[in-house]
Amino acid sequence: MTVIVDYGVGNLFSLLSSFSAIGEQAVVSSEKSVVLNADRIVLPGVGAFSDAAFKLEKTGLKDAVLVAAKNGTPIMGVCLGMQLLFDKSYEFGEYKGLGLISGEVRPIAEFTGDSLKIPHIGWNKLRIKRKHPLLKYAGEDNYAYFVHSYCAVNCDESVVADTDYGTDITAVVAKGNVMGCQFHPEKSGTAGLKILKAFSELKKGDL
Amino acid sequence: MITKRIIPCLDVRDGTVVKGKNFTGLKEISSPVELAEYYSGNGADELVFYDITASSDGRKIFTDILCETAKNVFIPLTVGGGINSLSDFDRVLKCGADKVSVNSGAIKNPALIGEAAKLYGSQCVVLSVDIKRVNGEFAVFAKGGRENTGIEAIEWIKQGVDRGAGEIVVNSIDTDGVKGGFDIPMLKAVCDVVNVPVIASGGAGKAEDFIALFKEVPKIDAGLAASVFHFGEIKINDLKQEMRKNGILARI
């Protein structure tokens, strides 16, 4: 069973519906024991990094996610959930993330200047950089739905796919059993459902 | 780079999808749940669900249908109509909406934009504006286009973005329902003053209207229409092929 971590940030309805659509049993939970015993973990998130990091810590779910990560449970962060996997973020200050993947989160505008609209919002094409089980059903012409103002940088060795928005925006990252999507797979049509399908087929110890 | 978005709009009243000409003469088309599911799988980049009921009974029906619809829609879903308070935001977001569109509610209480942006993020707050030319000026209309507020539209939109709106829907009453093309001058005027995504609405009659929109207003992010999609006069997948032929980025 896939567990979607509920730490009070964001709407989990769409993720739940998406897993249901691909026939995967998923539950939303804020219980540490449920997260620890999950076959797979989805770490969602919208809003500000500091607020999410604070809530994750306060609920004790941070420790549960870290233990599960160490035990080899496949973990996927989505949008802000992906950003939380990194060492730190510079959104309205400097805040520590989970440190599961090396890298940091910085404003997109630092790299694109004023020429492009921020947030980066809309459908953009994934450029696959290396093979990964998460993208095993993906084709070459896959568009994903992005909504974000900050992006992960200094994480080249973990990048699985990126996208072009005036600069190379990290789109999919993976390090061992920990992975993340900057875009919303649950809002990316068939292409997104294929990613969730691939994720739901991963088992502890696969990666 | 990001693609130009094509967005069907479903106006929902008493549980069915309707579309009138110049905001009057409503006609029943189809089940919102079925239509939304069809669009989600057939090239739409986003859906707008608009509640045009006035009664509280109608609101309950709309909310129930929205929840049912959202279960089978895996593209972004914007909900508007009857959004007057943070509890309205909460009501539709809980049903699976990704963005919430405010119109008359923001005119009555402009602070709502900022309060919602603070609570849910700017990306969640869409300011929808019905605009009509009055004595050569762009005027904001309320109540589904029936009431001139006397507010100058460009200034209203600028203020809305400053308050925290993350996206603007410009609906030209002058071109709405006429199917003679989008209101290019009005859209240019808006795109010149804001740096958030702008969605064009009102006037689409054929694929060429979208091509003209994206070519003549390069800063526009999306084109929205209702009846031409619902009646099958424009097939979204065909439209996107046509866009690509014209060098416009489209997701296929």
Stated plainly, the CATH topology of chain B is called TIM Barrel
CATH class of chain B: Alpha Beta
Query: Quick one: biggest sheet of chain A?
Result: 8 strands, mixed
Query: Which assembly state applies to the chains in this document?
Result: heterodimer
Global mean pLDDT of chain B = 92
Shape of chain A: globular
Series of secondary-structure elements of chain A, N-terminal to C-terminal: EHEHEHHEHEEEHEEEEEEEH
CATH superfamily of chain A: Class I glutamine amidotransferase (GATase) domain
* Total helical segments of chain B: 10
Strand content of chain A: 25-35%
Q: What is the count of β-strands of chain A?
A: 14
Q: Which percent bin holds the helix content of chain A?
A: 25-40%
Low-pLDDT stretches of chain B are 20-26
Instruction: Measure the end-to-end span of chain A.
Output: 17 Å
What portion of residues of chain B is helical? 25-40%
The CATH architecture of chain A would be 3-Layer(aba) Sandwich
Reported by name, the CATH topology of chain A is Rossmann fold
How many domains of chain B? The number is 1
Order of helices and strands of chain B: EEHEHEHEHHEEEHEHEHEHH
Strand order of the largest sheet of chain A: 2-1-3-4-14-13-12-9
